[in-house]
Structure formats: structure tokens, C-alpha cells
From TrEMBL:
PANTHER family reported in the protein's UniProt record: AMINOTRANSFERASE CLASS I_CLASSII DOMAIN-CONTAINING PROTEIN, BIFUNCTIONAL ASPARTATE AMINOTRANSFERASE AND GLUTAMATE/ASPARTATE-PREPHENATE AMINOTRANSFERASE-RELATED
Keyword Transmembrane helix attributed: yes
Keyword tags: Membrane, Pyridoxal phosphate, Transmembrane, Transmembrane helix
GO MF annotations, alphabetized: pyridoxal phosphate binding; transaminase activity
Record carries keyword Cell inner membrane: no
GO biological process: amino acid metabolic process
Pfam family, one: DUF493
Record PROSITE patterns: AA_TRANSFER_CLASS_1
Protein name listed in UniProt: Aminotransferase class I/classII large domain-containing protein
Superkingdom of the organism of origin: Eukaryota
Domain Aminotransferase class I/classII large: 21-177
Ranges annotated as spanning the membrane: 6-26
């Protein structure tokens, strides 16, 4: 949400790494793509200078800035809008999942988002490439983003955006998703009758496990927070914590540590343990 990220800009000033980027926009958070307004937070000073030069050529007009300011100042409206938007997105997400059941297509369970990450290997034919499967999907009337174009390895993964059409278009999508079972070729690695990924997940296609990861958590600048977060991560089963660091910036602090992660589920357990602390403002 843009309103939240504007606050995070202040919280993370000087605390995010030089290679970190945080971006958001009104087109994603308020369905107002026509205003062409966004927010970017960049950790490195050199990158910030380059970004500022680009901004010189695409500044937001004064009247648009005033409009956006007035809109965001209405906190009651913003709260009601985000609640209603969240409800509608969740309703569509649930219906997409239900439409996929029994088709041979699986998906990654999500906590938020405007699309669903689909494992279509269960409807691939013997020896079929992702590009060939994509051609059959288009012929079926479903156009999605192939996973390989986004760095996903293994073939057969697709990103299906379900929020970019009106209600009539969405109903058409549901009918076509329900018919994906007709495309089954009976071969590859996804298999099954369709369902969400549980403890296992798709990140093995993007990350190598076991892996050493650096985790950073931002919260209040006090010793209790640092100690509690460190102990919470150490308390996760099968996790070894090393190189605990701390970087203070005013009333905020950034806690960082290296962890050896055996598999995706352990990684999820780490972030779930961090999320249990209400004082956490941001995590990487």
C-alpha cells in the first residue's frame, strides 16, 4: 500500500542495504494507473543519484501532486478503500483456486497479491516445452505470463493475473480455468488433481537449498527487540544463526544475521517466527 510505503521511507532511511529497492505505485495500490505516480526507495547513494536524473525527465505534474496529496490525507477513505479492495481481491483469489481444483493445475498459496502463481506441469504433454504449452493455453483462451520469462526454472509455471479484468471478463476467466483439465497430457512433474502447494513449494526453482541467507529486520532501537528477534530465529528448528549485527539509526535499529537454511519450509518458519513480533516494521 502506497500510504504505508511512504511511512517506511522514513523508517528505512539509512537502514536498507545499497542493493535493496522498494517500489510501489498508485496503479497497483489504488487502481489509478492513469496518474502515473509511484514511490521508490533506494539504498545506495550512487543509485539514488542516477534515479534522480531519470526523475528529471518524468516528473509528476503539480496538479497531480495536489490531487494525490488530498486523496491520501483522507485517512478514513484510504482505510475503507483498502479494506474493500482487499475483500474483493481475496474473493477473486478464492474463486480462482476453486476453479483450478481437479484440473491437474496446482498453485502457490498466497497471503496477498493480484495474481496467482500456477504450476501447470500436470497438464503438459510428454516432451512439451513451456512455450508449446503456452501456445495451447492461448488457444484455450487463457493468456498468462510464462515462468521462464521471469527466471523460473523447470518449465510449466505461469503467473495468472486475475485483477485486470471487469466482472464479466473475470467470469469468462473462471469458466476457462475450469476447463484446463481438458488440456491434460498426462506427464510431467506437477501431477495430481490440482491443489495448493503446502509445506513443499516452488522456490527450489529460484533458490538453491540448502543455502546460507542474510536476513535483516527493522524495529525499535532497544536491546530487548534485538535480543527477542535473535532468540526467535534461533528457536526455529534446524536453524543455525551466525554473524549477528546491529545498525542503529535514531529510534530505529536494523538487526541482521546469517542463517543456514536446509529447505523452503525452514525459510518460511523463520519469517513466521519474525512476524509474531508486533514491533517488526520491515524485514528483508
Amino acid at each position: 500500500m502506497l500510504y504505508t510505503v511512504l511511512i517506511i521511507v522514513v523508517l528505512l532511511n539509512g537502514l536498507i542495504s545499497t542493493s535493496s529497492f522498494i517500489i510501489t505505485s498508485l496503479s497497483k495500490d489504488f487502481a489509478m494507473s492513469g496518474l502515473r505516480v509511484g514511490v521508490g526507495v533506494v539504498g545506495g547513494s550512487d543509485t539514488r543519484k542516477g534515479t534522480a536524473k531519470v526523475n528529471d525527465m518524468c516528473q509528476v505534474s503539480s496538479h497531480t501532486q495536489v490531487l494525490v496529496e488530498e486523496m491520501l490525507k483522507d485517512e478514513v477513505w484510504v482505510k475503507e478503500f483498502k479494506e474493500e479492495q482487499g475483500r474483493r481481491v481475496k474473493d477473486r483469489y478464492d474463486r480462482v483456486k476453486e476453479a483450478l481444483r481437479g484440473t491437474g493445475v496446482r498453485w502457490v498459496e498466497a497471503k496477498a497479491g493480484m495474481f496467482i502463481w500456477m504450476d501447470c506441469r500436470g497438464i503438459m504433454r510428454e516432451g512439451e516445452t513451456e512455450e508449446e504449452l503456452n501456445g495451447r493455453l492461448v488457444e484455450h483462451g487463457v493468456m498468462m505470463t510464462p515462468g521462464e520469462s521471469m527466471g523460473m526454472k523447470g518449465g510449466g509455471w505461469f503467473r495468472c493475473v486475475f485483477t485486470a479484468v471487469d466482472d464479466q471478463g473475470f467470469e469468462t476467466l473462471i469458466k476457462r480455468l475450469e476447463g484446463l483439465g481438458e488440456l491434460r497430457g498426462g506427464v510431467s512433474g506437477g501431477g495430481g488433481g490440482g491443489g495448493g502447494w503446502g509445506d513443499e513449494g516452488p522456490l527450489a526453482g529460484l533458490l538453491k537449498f540448502p543455502s546460507r541467507m542474510k536476513i535483516k529486520v527493522v524495529g525499535p532501537n532497544d536491546d530487548g527487540f534485538v535480543s527477542d528477534i535473535t532468540q526467535a530465529v534461533k528457536g526455529v528448528e534446524d536453524v543455525q544463526v551466525e554473524n549477528v549485527g546491529r545498525n542503529n539509526k535514531g529510534k530505529w535499529t536494523s538487526v541482521s544475521f546469517d542463517v543456514d537454511v536446509e529447505n523452503e519450509q525452514v525459510m518460511r518458519n523463520i519469517y513466521e517466527a519474525i512476524d509474531k513480533d508486533d514491533r517488526v516494521k520491515f524485514k528483508l
